[in-house]
Amino acid sequence: MKKKVVLIHGYNKSSKDMLPLKKNMERLGYECILVDLPLRFKEVDYCTSVFEKKIKGLLRNLNSNEKISIIGHSTGGLIIRYYLSKTKYIDKIGRCVLIATPNKGSQLADIASRFSKVFINILKTLKSLTTEEIKKLGIKEVKNVEIGAIAGNNNNLLLGKLLKEENDGRVRVSSVKYKGLKDFIILPYGHKEIHHKFKTAKLVDSFIRNGKFYGD
């Protein structure tokens, strides 16, 4: 039986952005489930509730000894962490992977918030990514689900020039890494490409199977 994984897209994207990762994970023997979330005009907590409803049936229909892993790109990773902190189906969740996720907040979102309150209040997902709002979520770490995180450090995007620290053009490496991760690795990719690379998929596969990011 193939291992099941749910793929969650990032801010201002749809499930289409996860199709390359889906294809790569299927090459590695997985069954992939895509979800679409309103990650533009809605807050992270609201989007997490939508996600919870979308996968409830899937979790209920798993075999007694079967677990499902969840992989999220960017904001999708925050959905995973917030979901894990509140779900009653925690025993059905296997290892999870966050790819280029601003776990400590997005410095670009902070800049946007200072620049225009009107703008940030319309794009509510972006507001949710500010350092202050992520702290307000009060995400609780779960001990019985292992989480790994992958960061990129190829600053190949214009907005990335506003970030002084090592980053992927959107998210600082230091924001992806946080205490409580089972494993962490940095790849030489940018924010918009990192989840499309086969090398990333291979590392995700390694973590799901072994709890470690084993390289080539």
From TrEMBL:
Keywords: Hydrolase. One of its GO terms (molecular function) is hydrolase activity. Signal peptide: none annotated. It comes from Thermohalobacter berrensis. Residues 5-111 form the AB hydrolase-1 domain. InterPro entries: AB_hydrolase_1, AB_hydrolase_fold. It comes from the Bacteria. Gene3D superfamilies: alpha/beta hydrolase. The lineage of its organism: Bacteria, Bacillati, Bacillota, Tissierellia, Tissierellales. The keyword Hydrolase applies. This is Alpha/beta hydrolase.
